[in-house]
């Protein structure tokens, strides 16, 4: 099924700027629609709609336009909506609010804000608040000049991008006019081959300020009667300029050409491009003049100041400074151009349609950035899940891993995962990563990461992911109250079991934000990795997890100490690192377990050891999902655990959890003496393991839906 996009602008004439992008999308297999007031035929679209847009924002027809557009959008289910023009874009973005929640991306190109440096106060009072408010209903805001980009980037809460203009097609300027063709075109306009000809292609209106050039021409023609000014463009001022030209007696030197389809040829027949505009976004007529190889003289309006480099390809003058405009034109006509035209042509390459189309393609195909944030520097359960999540959306999102620097770096490097190490887990370090990488979503994988992100990642959407069933989540504590306070900052709260949801003390406050996504147990990958260590020794019992208080590694060793009294040659491996490693080593030495217990430390591939162990003991005070238990089950290793709800839920049809150390010890010893009992325990455990946790496609769909929903809230 092809993707669909909708272009909107209040006037259909605006399609001329969108058609290159519409053609590009259609070539790439997109279905392209266009909505406008429909005053002219829409080209290069699969479907077009006539909507009751008007330029005046205070008319009732725009309410009708909103209703019409909302119906179209809700019916067509677009992937992208790209909107243009101030009024058309406001109506479109309001109509697309529900669609954005379903995943539609809304792109708005601002072709020059009405508020800018030097703009009237009324413009700032009206247009600035509207654009700032509407930015919240915009996924990507495209600005076409540097001033607008910097202001929007600084103050608008959306993804702001800079694309230099709508693009100029250099093919329209080919082939270059021959000398004969140039002279013939001039003669058809009543010009001589040696006349000095200026051109200003623009609609005749107050903003384009042709009056300034007419006043300058009065002075110029007095000094040089062979100076001419071409003014192609439709008249929207009811003949005002024509009357003024007649009053000044300039009919022979100023040529009102009306609408012309041959602007490239008129530019190539001219000597100089001039502009007197008060307001521009990034003026197309100047970019086209540069493509034609003309020098330019313009007022210092926004956009023109980016295109014209003083003394290189032209000059800039103040608004309505007729004297300065006259002087610069006179200087150009008398002293020549001094390579200005060549410089203009070279600078124009940046604004050619091929370059702009590539930039727009990046915008249409933009991948959102997800930063996975963890407070641990080591690799274990939550860190393994984070890596699985990153690899699970590879190609659909741009992802990176962020945590305090440590041994995790080696794991991430082996998995080819982008890593942003933090010297310290604090605001300053996180803010630096956010400023550098600019993520759209932060996926925080523990309490500390969630809280830090909620305070200091203000412009980024946050997902809080709690992998364990911590004590603070089911009773009132300082931690739980702090988390309750920050819930409003989280787009989604991910937990991994039903038991966690049922026990979560603030599940009513979290409401629909609270969702369950079981950890993925990648069965095929686990089995393949377990085959790597063909020479791995066999063990009776394995421990796998952080050597931290929550995992109770010393309780595990106490169990081993008691088992040794009955089974003197019991063989044990402990996999994992943590702050309690030295305490574990001291316990082993003190209780003479050196011949029984191997503390292997962190292992990038623990599966070979789990597979070669008969039992996996879990002595934690808490487990969120019990990932290592599910992995052990896949590798035909029996799991014996303290009485944890996560393990009981995972193996609901088997006896894998026990209330005391003694019952674990008793069950273990019974299985050692009764092979049949061991097989029955393993079989019941494997039979009860939920099949959905190994369904990679379903898990991936749940994950993609999570990010899609979070990004649209």
Commentary on this structure:
The protein folds into four domains: 4-162, Rossmann fold (3-Layer(aba) Sandwich); 170-356, 3-Layer(aba) Sandwich (Rossmann fold); 367-516, Rossmann fold; 530-689, Rossmann fold (3-Layer(aba) Sandwich), CATH 3.40.50.2000. The protein has 713 residues and is an alpha/beta fold. The strands form four sheets. It has a seven-stranded parallel sheet, sandwiched between helices. β25 (638-642), α28 (645-650) and β26 (657-658) form a beta-alpha-beta unit. The mean pLDDT is 92.
Total E-strand runs = 26
| Relevant CATH superfamily of the largest domain | Glycogen Phosphorylase B
Low-confidence stretches: none
**CATH classification class of the largest domain:** Alpha Beta
- Quote the CATH topology of the largest domain: Rossmann fold
Order of strands across the biggest sheet? 3-2-1-4-5-6-7
The helix tally amounts to: 31
Structural class per helix/strand content?
alpha/beta
Rounded to the nearest angstrom, the radius of gyration is 35 Å
| pLDDT averaged residue by residue | 92
Strand content: 15-25%
Distance between the termini: 26 Å
Proportion of residues in helical segments = 40-55%
Largest sheet: 7 strands, parallel
Which architecture name of the largest domain does CATH use?
3-Layer(aba) Sandwich
Cα shape: elongated
The structural domain count equals: 4
